[in-house]
Amino acid sequence: MRPSITPRERSDPESAPAHESGHEPPRAPEPTPASAPSRARPASTASPKASAASAKASAASAPPADPGTDLADLPPVGYGWRAVLHPAPALLLALALWGWAVTHTDVSDLDDFGLVTALHPTFWAGLALLTAGFWSTVRGPRRHPAWAPAYVVALLVMERATQAVLYPTPLYAWAWKHDAVIDHLLTAGRLQNADAIGDMAVYDQWPGFFAAQATLVRLLGVDSAAQFMTWWPLVSSLMLLLPLVLIYRTFTEDRRLIWTGVWIFCVANWVGQDYFSPQSVAFALHLGVLAVVLRRYGRPGPAADGADGTGGPAGGSDPSAARQRQAVWTVLLTLLVVAVVISHQLTPGMLIVSLAALFLTRRYRDRVPILTTAVIFLAWCLTAALPFLSAAMPDMIRSIGDIGGNVSTGYGATPTGTGAVLTSWAARLLSASALLLAAVGVWRGPVLRRRAMPLLLIAAAPLPMLGASSYGSEMIFRVLMFMLPGAAFFAAAALLPAERAAHERSPEASGRATVAPHPPRRYVWLPLLALLAGTLAFVPSYSGKDRLSYFPPAEVDLVRQVVDAAPDDSLVVASDRNYPLAFDQYGRLGHYWFLDDAREHVDRILRDPAATLAADMSAVEAPGRAYVLFTRGQFANAEMNGLLTEAQLAGIRDAVAASPLFERVAANEAGVAYVLKEAGR
Question: What pTM value is reported for the model?
């Protein structure tokens, strides 16, 4: 059952564009059987006043004229073999071009544009062809419904699997850090507090993701999560499809609108939180909770029938059966919320503000979702997460209301260099374009705006979090990501044309609908160009900084030599943490990144590198040793994020190499490692 349209909305042809209508076309009146006796009274027995009253009553009871219907909402049509196979060539050719591109791309020497300049040109041709094929598929009224999701899955493969195929090692230093947490959990066999593992204990206070991945490592029989986390961006992106489609289907059954919204969400979600991290799973669970709430905890209203989950609880005349069904959904909701709360710090807060925004509407006044989430979150914060929150609370309180400070990047997070600057601007323009399209979709569709008002609330709900915390200078990116599901839906509405279908009904037509010829339209290619531009812009936004995110096997080998040879209680020093295995074996090794220190101390290191670093490392007691690492990942991060210039970091490295206080212990084309000599040597 589709969301109903009020009589006022149905009678206004200008207020119901094609992508907004959700009602069934009215059925043609059934012809009266020839054998049915006539019940008409003789004309002589009806007074003029009675006839007028009867005519007025008939006019009042007659359904309003149908102003037109979405092509997607027309009665199902037969899919001939040509219509079924029509989208196949573009999809297959696009994937073939992608396959050719990834086998002819060299990533051994990435420049400041990352993967953008390294990709073979056929990749761009395949991505453009895939976008054009998808647009043709969603615009075609006779395309089989399976093709749109097939194109979206192909898009995710081209977007998220390219790096997994090209790079032999996992991306992102943070992914390597999470692998170290899982390895430590498997080694220690239990959760530990700050007395045992220091600052890393925060991960043991939100262990859901790491415990699940440790179990997966055991089940697969692999040595570590590093053996499968390369493919995690594709896996985590696929996990988002089901809850996202369920959310969109709550407000429309127009497949064009649903899958165009999913496509825009995929290409605008460049923030990079799909890597091997608790956030990737927590975000999918967040969308799952919203899908359950939107489809099973709403009240029927003008835009929600509720019988099929479109905005209201499933109906039924048996109250006990309805209560049982609601209890089942409450159990599922509770499980999802628990998984979110024990896995990530920020997502439960985002979920609470989203549920609070929904609760303020008259359709979502059920207290179960928001009370369940708030109670579970509060209980976890007051028990397992209390050690971290107690230490962090003063800083968190100071950041409340400081929107300018929360959204500023601060020292060491300013893109530097042509490639870094251009890719950063590409990401900003992509996000701005998606939000601008969403605003156009909201303005253009008053009926859709009223019907999908909960999605607008979900899109706007994360904004107050900008005044709550900086979240390590990442809050603005997280807010953008949580806004995107709602924004993408309305952005899709802005791109889709308001196609209409006129219905001519008569006894001779037997209730069949005939589609009126499409009126001529200007700028018919503009939506496709906008979709194509956004799809292509995803690549530099998502992969433009791969020079600092990718660690070649030589760099992994270099770091592993150091950490495997280091005795217990040793110290590993580096300029920053942007290298693989930066947290490896943190249960027995210490780490120090001097660019995290105060700027005054960094300046002292620049003036006298060897002596200052030797003094910093001299506190290590035997049998521990103190090591200093210089790797290509550190150089890329320092240069591209404005930490240090390449010449400055190279000067520190050369000073250490020339100092009699240090001894080289490992080196290859990816970097070099030194150890502080013991006293008396």
Answer: 0.81
